Amino acid sequence: MSGILAPQEQKDLQKFLKFLSLKTVQVIVQSRLGDKVHTRSKPNAMGQDWFNLAIDDIPEITDETKKAMSGRLTSVDVPMCIEISLKT
């Protein structure tokens, strides 16, 4: 198995990493909001529902994530750090 990806594989990987990063932040931030939510998984994922998560994205979280990432994607060399400020 070669360590070099074909151009289409590289494009697919970048797309996957982008959606993984955005959905990861949604899950982490929404889990810290303190709201009790009951959701069901989606056993037959379609389109962007790659991760079978039935949580709706909050646009503000997506916007802030995109601004923070500044067009960069997470990688093995550059980990993603999510800082959450708690107000009590």
TrEMBL record:
Annotated family: Belongs to the ATG13 family. Metazoan subfamily.
PANTHER family: AUTOPHAGY-RELATED PROTEIN 13, PTHR13430
Lineage per the UniProt record: Eukaryota, Metazoa, Cnidaria, Anthozoa, Hexacorallia
Coiled-coil intervals: none
InterPro entries named in the record: ATG13, Atg13_N, HORMA_dom_sf
Cellular component, GO, one term: Atg1/ULK1 kinase complex
Pfam family, one: ATG13
Primary location recorded for the protein, binned into one broad class: other
Domain Autophagy-related protein 13 N-terminal: 22-87
Compartments, as annotated in UniProt: Preautophagosomal structure
Protein name in the entry: Autophagy-related protein 13
UniProt entry keywords in alphabetical sequence: Autophagy
GO BP field: autophagosome assembly
